[in-house]
C-alpha cells in the first residue's frame, strides 16, 4: 500500500471523485476507495478525513473543475440563445458518449441521495443551482437585448426552467435516454423561448 508521504493527494482525489460520480456515495465504501486508489485507510484518513469529508472534497473538486467553468463559459458567451443551445448540445454529448457516458452529474446525483442531508453538501448543491441559474439568466439577458426572445418572456422563470432542464438531462442520460431524444427536448425547450423571427 502507498504511504501518505509518497502519493499525490490531488491525483488520488481525482480517482475518488470519479468513483463517487460513477457509483454514488451510498454505494461507495472506504474499502472501494482504498482499492481504487491503492491507498491504505490510514493514509486516506490522515489526508482527507472520514468518508463524509472525502465525499465533500470530491464534490468540491467536481464543482470547481467541471461544473463551474462550464457555467462561467455560458455566462460569458455573449451570443444569447445560440450560446444556450450550444451549452445543452455539449452537455448532452458529454453525458451520452465518451468515458463518462451514463454517469450523469455528480452534483445532480447527490440531490437524490442521503448525502444531501449534510449541511456542507447541501450548501454546495445550492451553490451549483444558483450559479447555473445565474449563467442562464445572463445568457437570456443577452438574448433579450438581441431581440431573440418572445415578448413578455420572464428571464428569471426561464432561467429556472433551463436549469431544471439541465437537471433532467443529467438524470435521464444516467437512466439511458438516447442523445437524439435529449437533443430534441432541448431544442423544443429553447424554441419555446425564441421569438418567431430569431435566427439561432
UniProtKB/TrEMBL annotation:
<dbReference type="InterPro" id="IPR009057">
    <property type="entry name" value="Homeodomain-like_sf"/>
</dbReference>
<dbReference type="Pfam" id="PF16925">
    <property type="entry name" value="TetR_C_13"/>
</dbReference>
<dbReference type="InterPro" id="IPR036271">
    <property type="entry name" value="Tet_transcr_reg_TetR-rel_C_sf"/>
</dbReference>
<dbReference type="InterPro" id="IPR001647">
    <property type="entry name" value="HTH_TetR"/>
</dbReference>
<feature type="DNA-binding region" description="H-T-H motif">
    <location>
        <begin position="29"/>
        <end position="48"/>
    </location>
</feature>
<protein>
    <submittedName>
        <fullName>TetR family transcriptional regulator</fullName>
    </submittedName>
</protein>
<keyword id="KW-0804">Transcription</keyword>
<dbReference type="Pfam" id="PF00440">
    <property type="entry name" value="TetR_N"/>
</dbReference>
<dbReference type="GO" id="GO:0003677">
    <property type="term" value="F:DNA binding"/>
</dbReference>
<dbReference type="InterPro" id="IPR011075">
    <property type="entry name" value="TetR_C"/>
</dbReference>
<keyword id="KW-0805">Transcription regulation</keyword>
<keyword id="KW-0238">DNA-binding</keyword>
<feature type="domain" description="HTH tetR-type">
    <location>
        <begin position="6"/>
        <end position="66"/>
    </location>
</feature>
Amino acid at each position: 500500500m502507498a504511504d501518505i508521504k509518497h502519493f499525490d493527494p490531488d491525483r488520488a482525489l481525482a480517482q475518488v471523485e470519479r468513483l463517487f460520480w460513477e457509483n454514488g456515495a451510498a454505494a461507495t465504501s472506504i474499502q472501494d476507495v482504498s482499492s481504487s486508489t491503492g491507498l491504505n485507510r490510514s493514509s486516506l484518513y490522515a489526508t482527507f478525513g472520514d468518508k463524509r469529508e472525502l465525499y465533500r472534497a470530491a464534490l468540491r473538486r467536481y464543482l470547481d473543475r467541471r461544473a463551474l467553468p462550464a457555467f462561467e463559459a455560458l455566462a460569458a458567451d455573449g451570443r444569447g440563445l445560440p450560446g444556450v443551445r450550444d451549452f445543452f448540445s455539449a452537455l448532452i454529448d458529454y453525458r451520452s458518449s465518451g468515458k463518462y457516458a451514463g454517469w450523469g452529474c455528480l452534483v445532480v446525483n447527490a440531490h437524490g441521495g442521503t448525502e444531501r442531508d449534510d449541511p456542507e453538501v447541501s450548501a454546495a448543491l445550492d451553490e451549483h443551482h444558483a450559479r447555473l441559474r445565474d449563467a442562464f439568466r445572463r445568457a437570456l439577458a443577452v438574448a433579450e437585448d438581441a431581440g431573440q426572445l418572445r415578448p413578455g418572456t420572464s428571464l428569471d422563470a426561464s432561467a429556472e426552467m433551463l436549469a431544471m432542464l439541465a437537471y433532467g438531462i443529467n438524470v435521464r442520460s444516467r437512466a439511458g435516454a438516447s442523445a437524439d431524444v435529449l437533443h430534441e427536448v432541448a431544442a423544443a425547450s429553447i424554441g419555446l423561448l425564441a421569438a418567431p423571427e430569431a435566427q439561432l
